[in-house]
Amino acid sequence: MKTTDRYQRPIISLRISITNRCNVRCFYCHHDGIVAESYEMSPDEIFRIAKIAKDIGVEKIRLSGGEPLVRKDIVEIVSKIASLDFKDISITTNGTLLGRYAAELVDAGLKRVNVSFDTLNPKTYRFITKRDYMENAREGIKKAVEAGLDPVKVNMVVMKGVNDHEIWDMFQFCRENGVILQLIELLKTENCEEGEFLEDYHYDMNPLEEELSKISHRVKKRRFMQDRKKYFIEDGEIEVVRPMDNTEFCKNCTRLRITPEGKIKPCLLRNDNLVDLIEPIRSGSSDEELKNLFLNAINKREPYYTETCATKSS
């Protein structure tokens, strides 16, 4: 039975950030401070969290980071979660290590993957990530398809003057490799100075969506994903992901998050209402006590959105 919050939003999925270590340094990425490897949650602790989540009705688990594949125990983590028989287990990764792990992850129970991959140009890739791993990421995408992960999605953050001219080249790459392209609008932050910096790279998706509407043979709205649209074009698919600081996203949000430190994060856009889970686990709390912590976090959920560096609750 699904658990709902005070606004009758069902809690369907749980995103667990298993590390905030990463092997690339994308300039648009937001870090709250790196948690040392020795302080990360263990596979057994992650399993315990997933088990309680399953007990309250969570159906889907997504592992993220940082870069989740920098953890040498990633296959063990996926295997433990898969033993709980969730409807879906997925990972978000930059793809640079995916070629090494794809087959093992499928065997462990991983169902699908999202690969953050913004450009096909080596110089642009180096500008964005400060690394030269582009070919590793390309190979990782292909290996994921070969291993049987389905769907495989490429997350392309579109940036004005950086990679906006590559959208159709990326679509062709995705179509040729049997993967779905997700075009992501650059997320503005609460920090006004950083917001002004990122504004220089902000790409308006409206004209693009108008073009996609004209050339698509079918358009589908995803209800529980802020009504984002998926465009079907010939033998390919493009999904447009708008910034999450809006009322439509909040109205349809069905997700809880776990931080790398083991805290429940009821809202993506807030850090002032976290609920500590890892210390009670390490102190021997019972499943019922942990379940109550989850319910407490769910009770803290309320719609939220950002408006020109100010917050509003709807």
From TrEMBL:
<feature type="binding site">
    <location>
        <position position="253"/>
    </location>
    <ligand>
        <name>[4Fe-4S] cluster 2</name>
    </ligand>
</feature>
<dbReference type="InterPro" id="IPR000385">
    <property type="entry name" value="MoaA_NifB_PqqE_Fe-S-bd_CS"/>
</dbReference>
<dbReference type="InterPro" id="IPR050105">
    <property type="entry name" value="MoCo_biosynth_MoaA/MoaC"/>
</dbReference>
<feature type="binding site">
    <location>
        <position position="28"/>
    </location>
    <ligand>
        <name>S-adenosyl-L-methionine</name>
    </ligand>
</feature>
<feature type="binding site">
    <location>
        <position position="267"/>
    </location>
    <ligand>
        <name>[4Fe-4S] cluster 2</name>
    </ligand>
</feature>
<feature type="binding site">
    <location>
        <begin position="255"/>
        <end position="257"/>
    </location>
    <ligand>
        <name>GTP</name>
    </ligand>
</feature>
<feature type="domain" description="Radical SAM core">
    <location>
        <begin position="6"/>
        <end position="234"/>
    </location>
</feature>
<dbReference type="InterPro" id="IPR040064">
    <property type="entry name" value="MoaA-like"/>
</dbReference>
<comment type="pathway">
    <text>Cofactor biosynthesis; molybdopterin biosynthesis.</text>
</comment>
<keyword id="KW-0547">Nucleotide-binding</keyword>
<dbReference type="InterPro" id="IPR013485">
    <property type="entry name" value="MoaA_arc"/>
</dbReference>
<feature type="binding site">
    <location>
        <position position="26"/>
    </location>
    <ligand>
        <name>[4Fe-4S] cluster 1</name>
    </ligand>
</feature>
<dbReference type="InterPro" id="IPR006638">
    <property type="entry name" value="Elp3/MiaA/NifB-like_rSAM"/>
</dbReference>
<feature type="binding site">
    <location>
        <position position="250"/>
    </location>
    <ligand>
        <name>[4Fe-4S] cluster 2</name>
    </ligand>
</feature>
<feature type="binding site">
    <location>
        <position position="116"/>
    </location>
    <ligand>
        <name>S-adenosyl-L-methionine</name>
    </ligand>
</feature>
<keyword id="KW-0411">Iron-sulfur</keyword>
<protein>
    <recommendedName>
        <fullName>Probable GTP 3',8-cyclase</fullName>
        <ecNumber>4.1.99.22</ecNumber>
    </recommendedName>
</protein>
<dbReference type="Pfam" id="PF06463">
    <property type="entry name" value="Mob_synth_C"/>
</dbReference>
<feature type="binding site">
    <location>
        <position position="22"/>
    </location>
    <ligand>
        <name>[4Fe-4S] cluster 1</name>
    </ligand>
</feature>
<dbReference type="InterPro" id="IPR013785">
    <property type="entry name" value="Aldolase_TIM"/>
</dbReference>
<dbReference type="InterPro" id="IPR010505">
    <property type="entry name" value="MoaA_twitch"/>
</dbReference>
<dbReference type="GO" id="GO:0051539">
    <property type="term" value="F:4 iron, 4 sulfur cluster binding"/>
</dbReference>
<keyword id="KW-0004">4Fe-4S</keyword>
<keyword id="KW-0456">Lyase</keyword>
<comment type="similarity">
    <text>Belongs to the radical SAM superfamily. MoaA family.</text>
</comment>
<feature type="binding site">
    <location>
        <position position="29"/>
    </location>
    <ligand>
        <name>[4Fe-4S] cluster 1</name>
    </ligand>
</feature>
<feature type="binding site">
    <location>
        <position position="62"/>
    </location>
    <ligand>
        <name>GTP</name>
    </ligand>
</feature>
<keyword id="KW-0342">GTP-binding</keyword>
<dbReference type="GO" id="GO:1904047">
    <property type="term" value="F:S-adenosyl-L-methionine binding"/>
</dbReference>
<comment type="function">
    <text>Catalyzes the cyclization of GTP to (8S)-3',8-cyclo-7,8-dihydroguanosine 5'-triphosphate.</text>
</comment>
<dbReference type="GO" id="GO:0046872">
    <property type="term" value="F:metal ion binding"/>
</dbReference>
<dbReference type="GO" id="GO:0006777">
    <property type="term" value="P:Mo-molybdopterin cofactor biosynthetic process"/>
</dbReference>
<feature type="binding site">
    <location>
        <position position="153"/>
    </location>
    <ligand>
        <name>GTP</name>
    </ligand>
</feature>
<dbReference type="GO" id="GO:0061799">
    <property type="term" value="F:cyclic pyranopterin monophosphate synthase activity"/>
</dbReference>
<dbReference type="Pfam" id="PF04055">
    <property type="entry name" value="Radical_SAM"/>
</dbReference>
<keyword id="KW-0408">Iron</keyword>
<feature type="binding site">
    <location>
        <position position="92"/>
    </location>
    <ligand>
        <name>GTP</name>
    </ligand>
</feature>
<dbReference type="GO" id="GO:0005525">
    <property type="term" value="F:GTP binding"/>
</dbReference>
<feature type="binding site">
    <location>
        <position position="15"/>
    </location>
    <ligand>
        <name>GTP</name>
    </ligand>
</feature>
<keyword id="KW-0479">Metal-binding</keyword>
<keyword id="KW-0949">S-adenosyl-L-methionine</keyword>
<dbReference type="InterPro" id="IPR007197">
    <property type="entry name" value="rSAM"/>
</dbReference>
